[in-house]
Write a structure and sequence with these properties.
- The chain is mainly alpha-helical.
- It folds into 2 domains: about 80 residues, Arc Repressor Mutant, subunit A (Orthogonal Bundle); about 180 residues, Up-down Bundle (Four Helix Bundle (Hemerythrin (Met), subunit A)), CATH 1.20.120.
- It is about 65% helix and about 5% strand.
- It contains 11 helices and 2 strands, in the order H-H-H-E-E-H-H-H-H-H-H-H-H.
- The chain has a two-stranded antiparallel ribbon with strand order 1-2.
- Strand 1 and strand 2 form a beta hairpin.
- The longest helix has 30 residues.
């Protein structure tokens, strides 16, 4: 590929904040399509001339763009900076890691995922192609067969569950749903995995997946939504059972009908709840 000369899309950098201005100009050119995915940027020497800045300023700007994931820098005779071709899975990972670190309470997670899954299910039912719907049904049959084994391969089961969720999101035809689904699957996959690890819940959860897929394939939106809701009923019961087991082991007395109220917790994560905002008058 010939060395590009994109001098016409840039202006000299502002004095005093040259590195930041260079990075912002290149970022804008990438986001508005003036610099295409995979396209090489001009050489550092050429960028120095275009922005009328030092080599140090250019390198600092390129490092900032690399940290943002907008460009990649290769060394060697055919190296240099080029616009990074982002894949959906790579774009999802940083947010997933962030969510894992926040240790979001399970009741907030269940509420969010159920609301998202209901929307995805409606769109997948109405927009999904017949082959994609049948493929989902076939996957749930295989999934249930695996879970009926005496010693199920939990790693493989987790992979298939993740693949089915992403396939369902892809059936909406909206890439944003697929991105968010990938994010939640990476960040919160261990929650659903608890259902499959528990002998008392695994077959119910597998049967529920199959029922959901069949109703989607049949175009039965209300039935599919009912199945989605039941999945989260099972998940909430499973999590509560685990909590009771933990409390019992610690010597605490618990009751099966005691379910924590979302607003009554104080999660250690960097977001202010709606109730806290209201109470402070902000």
């Amino acid at each position: 590929m010939n060395q590009p000369d994109n001098a016409e899309i840039f202006r000299p950098a502002q004095v005093g904040r040259a590195s930041e201005d260079v990075a912002l100009q290149v970022e804008a050119a990438i986001l508005n399509g003036q610099l295409k995915r995979g396209e090489r940027l001009p050489s550092e020497r050429r960028l120095q001339g275009v922005f009328k800045s030092s080599r140090g300023v250019i390198r600092e700007a390129l490092r900032a763009l690399k940290q943002k994931g907008l460009i990649e820098i290769k060394k060697g005779a055919h190296g240099g900076a080029s616009v990074k071709e982002l894949e959906l899975v790579n774009a999802s990972e940083p947010l997933a890691i962030f969510l894992k670190q926040q240790q979001v309470p399970s009741q907030f997670l269940i509420e969010f995922r159920e609301s998202m899954d209901r929307t995805i299910t409606q769109l997948a039912t109405s927009r999904g192609s017949r082959p994609d719907k049948q493929a989902l049904v076939d996957s749930t049959v295989y999934f249930e067969e695996l879970l009926r084994q005496t010693d199920p391969d939990m790693k493989r089961i987790a992979e298939i569950d993740r693949e089915m969720n992403i396939a369902l999101a892809r059936m909406t035809g909206n890439p944003i749903f697929e991105m968010i689904m990938r994010t939640t699957q990476i960040g919160f996959s261990s929650q659903d995995q608890l259902l499959y690890e528990d002998p008392g819940f695994r077959l119910k959860a597998a049967a529920n997946w199959g029922e959901t897929a069949r109703r989607i394939a049949d175009g039965d939106i209300l039935g599919a939504l009912s199945s989605i809701s039941y999945h989260y009923v099972l998940l909430a019961r499973c999590l509560k059972a685990k909590e009771n087991q933990t409390d019992a082991a610690a010597g605490f007395q618990t009751h099966a009908d005691e379910v924590p109220v979302c607003g009554d917790t104080a999660p250690n994560w960097p977001f202010q709840s709606a109730r806290e905002t209201s109470d402070t008058g902000q």
